[in-house]
Amino acid sequence: MTTQTYKGAIWLKSGGHYVSVSCEATSPSAAKRIIESMYDVKSWQRHMASN
């Protein structure tokens, strides 16, 4: 499987402005799991998409 760069934006549970995030993954769902394991995500402002 090949990896792509996925980008999105999240709101953190700590509050404030949304944060732009990106990671290398094989699918949008895998990218979402990676980001959710790295950050304390409250909600998604923009879901993961490849560019």
Question: Features of this protein?
Answer:
alpha+beta, 3-stranded antiparallel beta sheet, 1 helix, 22% helix, 51% strand, elongated
Outline of the structure:
The protein is of the alpha+beta class and 51 residues long.
Structure commentary:
- This protein is an alpha+beta fold.
- It has one domain (4-50).
- It has one helix and three strands.
- It has a three-stranded antiparallel β-sheet with strand order 2-1-3, with helices on one face.
- It starts with a strand and ends with a strand.
The helix content is: 10-25%
| Total strands | 3
Q: Supply the number of structural domains.
A: 1
**Unreliable stretches, pLDDT < 50, 5 or more residues?**
none
How large is the radius of gyration? 11 Å
Write the layout of secondary structure elements.
Layout: E1 4-12, E2 19-25, H1 28-38, E3 41-50
Antiparallel strand pairs: 1-2, 1-3
